[in-house]
Design goal:
With about 190 residues, the protein is α+β, with helices and mostly antiparallel strands. It contains 2 helices and 7 strands. Helix content is about 30%, strand content about 30%. Strands 2-4-5-6-3 form a 5-stranded antiparallel sheet. A hairpin with a 7-residue loop joins strand 5 and strand 6. The two termini are about 15 Å apart. It binds coenzyme A. Coenzyme A binds next to strand 3 and strand 6.
């Protein structure tokens, strides 16, 4: 077996913390809304997934910018689940908040609800997503973000679940690197 490669670039030691004042989850929580128009429909006549994805990314970007106090870019979409289709005429509401913070990165959770624009019927949960944003300085380099301070029991649950996702993401990345190193070693050996 090939030697284990160094920790992947971009992984910050777990004990490295910033000296910025913690910010509560509620300080940057936001909702962004969009009405699904006929132009937003896919070939089946329901809301195009890309429209929901853009709404999710826009809502998450607003939260990341607010929390970090400046520009922040999408580094990864860790998960995006479509639960039920949105329909033309639905009002989509993307509720977003910071779930977890690292040194320069943040996990933003987004829940998208759909309600009929002209009916008082219950909203449907159409999608959920978890995105990693990285705060950047004017040169585009990662810059430290304030630690998030979870407030409610739900915030604490989201924080713990974000840590599980991060642990799994890093483990998967490391396993793939190891597999590639093995593959390259085997290729080199002929
Ligand atoms: C995101 C970006 C700034 C990271 O820059 P980088 O020099 O690779 O960053 P580093 O390796 O120093 O890592 C910085 C942080 O990002 C995190 N990170 C980097 N790549 C990541 C990925 N693919 N998934 C999740 N987190 C990631 C690291 O874990 C680290 O987090 P931490 O500081 O909280 O521990 C850079 O890759 C970039 O500019 N990407 C393009 C972004 C973009 O154009 N988005 C679409 C439009 S907004």
């Amino acid at each position: 077996m090939a030697p284990l490669p160094d920790a992947p670039a971009g992984v910050t030691p777990e004990d490295e913390t910033t000296t910025l004042e913690p910010k509560p989850s509620s300080a940057s929580r936001t909702t962004l809304s969009h009405i699904v128009s006929p132009q937003d429909a896919n070939l089946y006549g329901t809301g195009h997934g890309g429209v929901v994805m853009k709404l999710v990314d826009d809502a998450a970007a607003a939260v990341a910018g607010r929390h970090s106090g400046g520009p922040a870019v999408t580094a990864a979409v860790d998960e995006l689940t479509f639960l039920v289709p949105a329909r033309v005429g639905d009002l989509l509401h993307a509720h977003a908040q910071v779930n977890w913070t690292g040194r320069t990165s943040m996990e933003i959770g987004v829940r998208v609800l759909a309600e009929r624009w002209n009916e008082s019927t219950p909203a449907h949960h159409v999608a959920s997503a978890y995105l990693t944003f990285v705060a950047i300085d004017p040169e585009g380099r990662p810059r430290p973000v304030p630690p998030v301070r979870p407030e409610t029991a739900e915030d604490h649950r989201r924080f713990r679940e974000a840590e599980i996702r991060r642990t799994h993401r890093l483990a998967r990345r490391r396993a793939i690197q190891l597999s590639r190193a093995d593959h390259e070693a085997a290729e080199a050996a002929g």
